[in-house]
Amino acid sequence: MTAALRSIITPTAILRLVLGWGVFIALQFMGTLLAPPVPLPLLVTALVVIIAVILICAFGVVTEAEHLANRLGDPYGSLVLTISICLIEVILIAAVLLGPGDHATIARDSVMAVSMIILGAVVGLCLLIGGLRHGALTHNRTGASNYLVMIVVFAALAFAVPALIGTPDGAYKIWQEIPIIVVTVGAYVFFLCRQMGPQAHEFTEVAPVGAASAGASSTAETTQSASTEAADQADDAPQGIVEILSTHRVEIVVRLVLLVATVLPIVLLSHDMASLLDDGLGRLGAPVALSGVVIAMIVFLPETLTSLRAAWNGEIQRVSNLCHGAQVSTVGLTIPTVLVIGMLTDQPIVLAESPINLALLAITLLVSVIGFSAKKVTAVQGAAHLIIFVVFGLALFA
Q: Does the pLDDT value for residue 84 go beyond 50?
């Protein structure tokens, strides 16, 4: 038991907690120094430290979620990881939304930035790296199609429909928000039920790297290997979720407690980050949407590294599960949650996007649908995704 706890509560995990809670306590003693107007050197230093600590804690949250994902197995593990990422995003958006100043567009800006980072930059880099290292990679087309269908529908409800039926500034009317929240969350829950149940096999790797060389063995060896594998599978049948929870309940509970203890500093620090970020961007005269980009980078950086590792290993279906799954949950969970926060706090939530961003998102989705509808994905498709993301960056500062 003690050895198991040591493997969970590692020096790195303790360091993350000390940094997160230590910086939060330090900021409480510096409250008067950080009251506006904050001297520029102090503002930059404080902002860099806070964002760095939030990133470190975010890595800790994702690390614990990944351990839980490995223990629980898919699709339950992927759900824990997805919800952890969405939780961080909602916390940061809510901190900016409820902070000083007018931030009616922060949810739109951050979710759009996350969408373009995931579908443009991360998917593009993964396809480029995986394609250059392993050649054309086979993925599960049915699973990718399920993801992309949901992404198209959720993106339309989030960014296009409000401009057509909402208020003149691009927000849903109160009576429209409730059915949008219900149908979006309902569709997401239905998708999860199918992904975790009857359609779970559609989200698994099709052809792991090296499978082709394994298929070159002799018939006798193949028959013997198949018999051995069948025997192993009989001995090592996958555990059900109830059995896993019963067998590993101590580890699961400790990791959940550690995950929550690492999330809390993000919650507490996000308020200070929001006010300092708003002050800093205002002094620079930077675009308002840049706040959303900063939040998006913080939220998806840990998952980006995980996706790039999967691409390096040739696990293209894992890349799709991580990236497309995160995109589905980002739009399917974050937007309804922010709409609920807006309703409870009487804050307007402007969602309608600009024509250029809508066009770039539509092109990205079109390229994704075309690319992942093929049997294999290639490095050329990755380059196309990256080009669109570069144009998004140019449009941001236009």
A: yes
